[in-house]
Amino acid sequence: MDAIRTAVLIIATLATGLTAGVFGLYAHTVMRGLATTDDRTFVAAFQAMDRAILNPWFLGFGFMGALISSAVAAGTQIGRDALPWTLAALALYLVAFVTTFAVNLPLNDALKAAGDPDTIPDLAGVRRAFNEARWRTWNTVRAWTSTLAFAALCWSLVLDGRAM
Questions:
Q1: Predicted TM-score (pTM) of this structure
Q2: Does Membrane count among this protein's keywords (predicted)?
């Protein structure tokens, strides 16, 4: 059981860390870079990145995997010192997860629904409707909560190792 508990905790930590990295990269690099582009470039680039991120590595192992493996890890830590930290990580990551579905994905989907940038008559209007400031603000929430979840899982690993 010790090996399974530790393996699940390692998987949760890796998946959460990778997802935190994606959200962080968008916060401090991608969106700042896109903010300096013209409307057509912004819409086309964001649509392309949104399509590209829908892959098994990010969605399966990272985004969904972080949530599932954190929940499983919490279940394996019942009665152990690492449980509060693992539960804190799960709660923090759940904020990032819910924020994604409540805010970021609807904005992404609306931008994709606008269609091919070469056929959009009002690219500036599509970009304004996307609401970059709102997307960035809530992505920052995702970046911080998932990074804090990663840190909590790292500490859970330390505590789990001490208990062995």
A1: 0.95
A2: yes
